[in-house]
Amino acid sequence: MGVLDGKVALVTGGSRGIGRAVAERLGRDGAVVAVAYGSDRAAADEVVARIGAAGGRAFALHAAFGAHGDAAALWTAFDAATPVPGVDIIVNNAGTNSPADIFALTEDEFDRVFAVNVRAPFFVVREGLGRLRDGGRIINISSGAARLAMPSGIAYGSTKGALDTFTVNLAAQLGSRGITANSVAPGIIDTDINASWLRGNPEAQAGAAALAALGRVGTPEDIAGVVAFLASDDARWVTGRVVDATGGAGL
């Protein structure tokens, strides 16, 4: 039996990178996984198929974030598709970036990044609370950029700081229902988003690895393992925390 048998999980941004690894890990651990994707249905279907091939259950949901009402639309689709009413685990992983410093960042880009990285998780949780069972889990994917200076991505780091504040407030307000809320803060992870500068570039690989005390670049599976722990009953006494998953960057 898996440690998450009988549980239902929603993973936003679940079709690639960290979200994909999280969805597949929660599926292996026994959860029925809603794989929410933004634009690539084929990738989401592949994740669903991989979870099924490993003996799990999953289904894909379209979830485009950035506009008002997107979170409500996600949950409407979830209700129509889920084989089991309600949800036990919400993983807010979907996110975006804008590679601009304070001088280059436009107001439109600022609004876009905050809409996806802050407003969407806020309303995904709020609209989902009526479905989230007592003893549930809220896991927000933050970033080491919330505590480390990264001027070239100032909007991104700012959104992740906001997400961490959101997390601690959720923990305080929902604790009476046995619901935990935690953030996971990755460092540099080898995903498609970083492929253009990281993969096939030994110098970039070495530089990124040197930032971590553990001496390598992180993988999506490294983060999925932390999320799986927080989703499990073993983490029932952990809430309101930011779990650093940077491999010891900036120590």
UniProtKB/TrEMBL annotation:
Keywords: Oxidoreductase. Residues 7-191 form the Ketoreductase domain. Its EC number is 1.-.-.-. It comes from the Bacteria. GO terms for molecular function: oxidoreductase activity. It is an enzyme of class 1 (oxidoreductase). PROSITE patterns: ADH_SHORT. PANTHER family: OXIDOREDUCTASE, SHORT-CHAIN DEHYDROGENASE/REDUCTASE FAMILY (AFU_ORTHOLOGUE AFUA_5G02870), SHORT-CHAIN DEHYDROGENASE_REDUCTASE FAMILY PROTEIN. Belongs to the short-chain dehydrogenases/reductases (SDR) family. This is Putative oxidoreductase YgfF. It comes from Nocardia aurantia. The lineage of its organism: Bacteria, Bacillati, Actinomycetota, Actinomycetes, Mycobacteriales.
